[in-house]
TrEMBL record:
Source organism: Thermogemmata fonticola
Record-level GO BP terms: methylation
Protein name from the UniProt record: Class I SAM-dependent methyltransferase
InterPro entries according to UniProt: SAM-dependent_MTases_sf
SUPFAM superfamilies: S-adenosyl-L-methionine-dependent methyltransferases
Superkingdom of origin: Bacteria
Length: 342
C-alpha cells in the first residue's frame, strides 16, 4: 500500500498503480536524456478538486541542470488534471488593448509587447499559436493582419474558436493539417512547460517555420526570486500540469539543441502570480504580515518590478529563429540572459 502523502518510487507505482485513476510514468531528462537526477521539492496539485493528498516530485538533472516533474502522469492521463473550468481554457473575447509604448515595457517589464502584437517580423504572414487557450491572442493577431491558426488539446476551446470563425485545430505537434515551412511566426504562450516531450515539439515547430521564421516562447522562470521564495506554493509551479520547469539557461539550451538561433531570453513581470503565490502560502502556513502585504496590488507591483530589474522575473520570454540559410547554419556559441526588451 502506498502512502498517498509520499511520492512513489518507480518500483512502487509500477507494482501498485491500481489505486490511482491515472497512470504514472518515469522519464529521463527531457533535455540531455540522462537518468541521474536529484530531488528539488515536492508539491500537491494546487487546484481545488485536484487529487487530494497526492504529491508530485520535481527533480534536477545532475548532467545538464534541467528541472522537471518526475515521475509524472502519462500523456493519456493528463486530462484528469485539467478541470472543465481550467482558467486558461476559458474562452474570452475582449476588445484588443492598445499596445503600450516600448519604453513602458522596457521599464516595467510588462505588458509583454510581443503579446500585444509587436513581433520580430511584420504581417502579412501566417502565425500559429501552439496551445492557443482562450483565443485572445489569436484575435489580436488577426486584427493586426496576420493569418492565424490556433492549436490546442482542449476540444471545448477549439470548438468555441471555430464557432467564432477562427481557424483552430484540435491536437498537438506534429499535426497532419499543418505543412512544413508554412508559418512565419509560431508562438507558445505558457504552453511548452505542459508537454511531455518539449524537444519534439520544438523540432516540429522548427519544421513548420519558413527559413528565417520566428518562434516566441513564454514559460515560467524556475530561477526567479518568487520561485525561490515560495517553493511549493509558487504559482508558476502548477503541478502536475507543468512538466518542465525552465530557467534562462535550460530554455536556451533546449532551443539551441533543436537548431534554433536564440536572439534573447528576458524576464516578463506577472504581478498576479506573486499575489496568488502569497495567497497559497497563507492558505498552507497561515497569515504573515509580508504575505498580506504582497496581496496588496501596489506592493506586489513593486516586488515584481524589483525581481524584473534584478533579472529574476517570474516569466521568461524567448525569441528564437529558424536559421534563414539551410546549411551551414552557425549556432550562437554563448548565451547571455537579457532582461530588456529586444
Ligand atoms: Zn539533463
Amino acid at each position: 500500500m502506498i502512502d498517498p502523502m509520499v511520492v512513489p518510487s518507480p518500483v512502487e507505482y509500477a507494482a501498485d498503480s491500481s489505486q490511482y485513476d491515472f497512470r504514472w510514468e518515469e522519464t529521463d531528462c527531457l533535455l540531455c536524456g540522462q537518468a541521474e537526477a536529484e530531488l528539488v521539492l515536492e508539491a500537491a496539485d494546487p487546484l481545488p478538486g485536484g487529487q487530494r493528498g497526492l504529491r508530485f516530485a520535481v527533480v534536477r538533472c545532475r548532467q545538464c541542470g534541467l528541472v522537471y516533474t518526475n515521475p509524472r502522469p502519462d500523456a493519456a492521463s493528463m486530462f484528469r488534471f485539467y478541470p472543465q473550468d481550467y482558467a486558461p481554457h476559458a474562452v474570452r473575447f475582449r476588445r484588443p488593448p492598445r499596445p503600450k509604448p516600448l519604453w513602458f515595457s522596457r521599464l516595467f517589464g510588462r505588458p509583454c509587447p510581443e503579446r500585444r502584437g509587436r513581433l520580430p517580423c511584420q504581417p502579412p504572414g501566417r502565425l500559429l499559436d501552439f496551445g492557443c487557450g482562450s483565443g485572445a491572442f489569436l484575435q489580436r493577431m488577426a486584427a493586426c493582419g496576420w493569418e492565424t491558426v490556433g492549436l490546442d488539446i482542449a476540444p471545448q476551446v477549439v470548438h468555441a474558436l471555430q464557432q467564432r470563425g477562427f481557424r483552430a485545430l484540435l491536437g498537438s505537434l506534429p499535426h497532419p493539417q499543418l505543412a512544413p515551412r508554412s508559418f512565419h511566426v509560431i508562438t507558445m504562450w505558457q504552453a511548452l512547460e505542459h508537454v511531455h516531450q518539449p524537444r519534439l515539439i520544438l523540432r516540429r515547430a522548427w519544421e513548420l517555420l519558413v527559413p528565417g521564421g520566428y518562434l516566441i516562447v513564454a514559460v515560467p522562470n524556475f530561477a526567479s526570486w518568487p520561485a525561490r521564495w515560495f517553493q511549493q506554493d509558487w504559482f508558476g509551479l502548477d503541478l502536475p500540469r507543468h512538466l518542465t520547469h525552465f530557467t534562462p539557461e535550460t530554455l536556451t539550451a533546449m532551443l539551441t539543441a533543436e537548431q534554433f538561433w536564440v536572439h534573447s531570453v528576458r524576464g516578463v513581470v506577472h504581478v498576479d502570480w506573486l499575489r496568488s503565490s502569497a495567497q497559497r502560502r497563507i492558505a498552507r502556513c497561515g497569515p504573515r504580515w509580508y504575505l498580506r502585504l504582497l496581496q496588496w496590488k501596489p506592493a506586489a507591483d513593486v516586488a515584481a518590478w524589483l525581481c524584473y530589474v534584478a533579472g529574476k522575473a517570474e516569466c521568461l520570454l524567448a525569441t528564437a529563429q529558424r536559421p534563414p540559410r539551410e546549411a551551414p547554419a552557425p549556432i550562437p556559441a554563448a548565451f547571455s540572459a537579457q532582461r530588456t526588451a529586444s
